[in-house]
Predict the structure of N-acetylglucosamine kinase.
Amino acid sequence: MKGNYVIGVDGGNSKTDYFLFDLSGTLVDHIRSGTCSHEQFKDSYAEAYRVMNEQITLLLSRNGLSMEDVATGAFGLAGADIPVQKRNLNEVVERIGFTTYALDNDSFLGIKVGSEKGYGICSINGSGVCTGGISPSGQRLQVGGVGSELSGDEGGGFYLSRRVIRAIYDSFYRLAPETSMTAPAMELIGVSNKESFMDYALEQLITRKLPFTGLVTVLFEAAESGDPVASAIVDHSARQLAYSTVGCISHLDFNEEPVDIVMAGSVWVKAASPVMRDRYKQYVAELTGRECNFILLQEPPAAGAVVWALELAHGGPLSAELRKKIIDALQ
């Protein structure tokens, strides 16, 4: 295999990290730039190519390198959700000059960095949700992640905050029960009367100023205190994410050993309340009927791209020491 370096790319909807490592697992260079997602550009894949090629060329050239020096690459990309998107993004990566590489949805990066085995399930619950799975044989499957309730994407900060708004509106005008979320949510939105509630909420939703994190915090605190409306919202989302996780497990060739389930994303990792995490774990246990190891991801997901690229370069799983060296370099 040509080259003594690997490139790992973690491409989200707002920012992208490009990492250059050598084959010994030493960090050489790093660039953070804006999104590379084709979904965010008017010119779609053409612009995604331009942006990624520009940044990767810069990453290499300022270190006196070219694509001839790159052994492998790994790309975890937002917007790599369905086969046609992945085919088009493969073409982008090959046009840049990669011949040996891995490319998939960014949910798979959580598995590579969170599980020492290098396989398992990653449940992302951040602004949106997605589930990715890698089996011991290397089979991969993504469940959901297309931003639609059609595929069970009924979780994440955007969805949960809208459910809070809906519950309060229902209590005002649609004969639904009152909820303790009303007063703190109205304070967050900055509205003092029910007549203006939806006007303010919609305006902030359209302008992307709705306090998503605050509303999710209100939801979890109310659920923990026994509010039945909040509890029902949390329960529904926890169950939906569990369905995606267990569905992913059941469609991959896992053996009888315990399955590592990596939990990533701000709602899973940063929420002070454990109420949704606990219910999710409970439903997964009930639905799968097998032992699972739940791992709350504390490491940067971008490390998964580097681990994956080095696995390709070395022809198999990395040692625990090498994985730790990569993760420590990105902390």
Notes: Strands lie at 5-11, 15-22, 27-34, 70-77, 101-105, 120-125, 129-134, 140-143, 259-264, 292-296. The chain has two domains: 5-104+299-329, 115-298. The mean pLDDT is 95.
